[in-house]
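Risk register update: the risk that structure generation would not scale has been downgraded. Supporting records follow, first protein first.
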Amino acid sequence: MSENNNPTTPSTDVDAAHEAGVVAQADRFTDPGVPEHKPRLTDTDPQAAKRAERIVAALFGISALGAIGSLVAYFAFPPGGTAETRLSTLLFGLGMAVSLLGIGIAAVHWAKSLMSAHEYVDDRHPIESSPEVREVAITALNQGVADSGIARRGLLKGALVGAMALFPLTIAVPLISSVGGDWNVDKFRHTLWQRGTRLAYDPNGRLIRAADLTIGSVAHVIPDVPAEERLTHHWITEKAKAVVLLVRMNPDDIRSEQRPGGSYDGIVAYSKICTHVGCPVALYEQQTHHLLCPCHQSTFDIADGAKVVFGPAKRPLPQLPITVDDEGYLVAEDDFDQPIGPSYWERLK
C-alpha cells in the first residue's frame, strides 16, 4: 500500500523511460552530411563560363554608365524652378539607381554562376586559434580568392574596379560641389513680412478683412504681392518661408501670447513651418485649439502662444504680429518674432 501511494515513483520511471527512448531514437539517426555536389553548366562548359563572365562584365559596364549618366545629369540639368528641380532630381536619381543596381546584380550573378559552388563544413573550434589554425584560415581565404576567379579573370576585375570607382562619385561630386555655396542662415531670420504688408489668401491672393472671419475660421495666408511677382522663382522661394496659418478664436480663449499684442480681436497668425524639421503644420483642431504637424505629430497650442504640448519639436511656432489698416484689412505689424523653421547652430534663441 505504501508503494502504491507514493506518487513520485511512477513519474520517475516514466521520465527515465522517456529519456532512454529519446537517446535510443537519437542513436538511430546519423548525420546525413553534405549532399553530393552538382556541377553547374559554367563548371563543365568553358563557353558557358565565358558567357557568364561577359554578362557580369556588361552589368558592371551598365553600372559605370549609370554613374556617368548621373554626373552628366547633375551638371547638364541644374536645379532651378520647380520643373527644373524635379527633372534634375529625377535624372540624377535614375543614374544612381542604375549604377547601384548594376553593381548588385553583377555581384549576385558572379557569385551564382562563376564563384565556387561547393558546400563546406567547418568544425567548431575555440575562439582563440592556434598559429596552425590561423595559417589554415589564411590558406582557405587564398583558396576562396582563387575560387572566385578574380585573379585569372582580368575582364571582371577591371569591370568591378571601374564600377566601384565610379559609383562613389555620384555621392562625392554633389557634396564637393556644394562647398562654397550659399550658407547664409541669416536668411531664415527675415521673410517677406514687414510692417504694413497685407495678409492674402493662399493661393489666390485675395485680401483678408478681419470682419469676414468668424470664430473658428482657419485660413492659409501669404503676403500680398503684385500678381506678376508671384510668377517668379524668387517669390516661390520666399513664399516657402513666409507661409502663415491664420485662426480666429474667442478672445477669452487666448490664455497667453508668445508675442504680447500680436493678435487682433482673437485672430492669431503663426508660421506654418514646423520647428522640428520644417514640415507644413496645418491640421487644426477647433475644440482644443491644437495645431498638429502631420510628419512627426508635434502638437502646438494656438491658445497658449503655439507652445509645444506633444512631439519632438522643441520651440513654439513663430508668431506674426497682426492688426488692421484703415480699410479693415489684416496687415502685419512686423516680421515674425523669431527665425522660422528648425533650429540651427547660429540661432541665439
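Supporting record for the second protein:
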Amino acid sequence: MKPYQIIYYRGFGSPRAVWLTGRVLRQNELVSPADQAPFWDNLSASVSRFLTSEVDGITVRIEAFGQVFRTVTNDEGYFDITIDPAIELPTGRAWFPVRYALEGVLQPEGYEGKSGSGQGREVVKDGQLMIAPAYSQFGVISDIDDTVLVTGATSLWQTLRLTFLENAFTRLPFAGVAAFYRALQGGAVTTLFNPIYFVSSSPWNLYDLLIDFFRIQGIPKGPILLRDLDINASMISKEGHHLHKLAMIRKVMDVNPDLRFILLGDSGQQDPEIYADIIRDNPGRIVVAYIRDVSREADRDEAVQHLIQTAANDNVPMLLVPNTVAAAEHAAVLGLIDPDTLPEIRADRKADQE
C-alpha cells in the first residue's frame, strides 16, 4: 500500500479570517528536480503529478494559533477551511506555523519515510500561512503564466511541452521578474513587508513545481492559488479561466479589506479583462495594473487598449509594458519601490536574458 501524503498549499488571510487548503493523496513523495535531469525523469515526474490516488472523507486536524480545527476531504481529496485566529497577532510578523494531521490514520506497513521507518506513525505535515502585517503599504496580486513563468499559454502544444518535458531548474522566468518582485515586497521603505499572491488557472497538480521554481529563481515566497483539474470544456474555456481568477482575486481582497493592491499580468489571455472587472468592482482599492505585452495580434492589441481606457475612466492606470524594467521604472515614479533597486532589476533582466 502506498503511503498517505498531505499536500498543503500556503494559507493566507488577515487577523480576522485565514483560508487554509490542501489535499490528501496516497502516493510516494516526488523527488526534488535535478538541473541536468534527463527527458525521461521530467516526463515521469510530470505524469506522477497527474496520476493521483485521492483520499476522500478523511478528517484533517489543523493546529494553528494555539487552537485546533477540523475539516473533511472531498471526493477528490481536497480540503479547505476558513478559520478565525481569535488572538492578537504579534506586530511585524508575516508568516505563522500550521500543522496538518490525519485523524485515526497511521502510515501503512512497509512504508519508510525520509527519516527512516514510517510504519505506524501518524500522518503529519508542517506548513506556513501568511498574514499581511498592519504596516503593509499594499498587496501584490500576480498572474504566473507568461507573467512570471514562460509557458507559452497562448499555444496549447507549447504549454504541454514545457509542462511535461521540463522541470523547475530548466523552466525560464521572464527577465528581471525576481528582482522586481523583491523590490515590490520591500516597497519604497525597505523595512516594509508587502504580501505577494500568485494566481493562475494551472491545476494544483503543478504546485510543487512552482514552489521549486520560485525558490530556485529567488522570487519572493507567497501563497500560490491554482485550480482543481477538471477536464471539461469549461476548464479550458476563456470563461472558465476568467471566473476562476476573478474568484481567487476576490478571495484575497476579501480577507484583506484594508489593503490596496497592485495587479500584474500579461496580454496573452484574459488578464486585462479580469483586472478591468476588479478595478470596476473595487473603487479605490487598486493602485496600478501592469500588463506585459506578449500578444502579436492587432485585434488583441486593440482590445487591450480599450480596457486600458476603461481602467483610466475608473481612475486607475493600467499600463501595457514591454518588459519588467519598464514596469519597475513606473513603480519607482509612483513611490511603490525604492529607486535604488532599479540597477539590480536591470542587471537581473540582463542576466536572465543571457
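The CA atoms of residues 60 and 102 lie 5 Å apart. On this basis the risk owner (M.S.) recommends closing the item.
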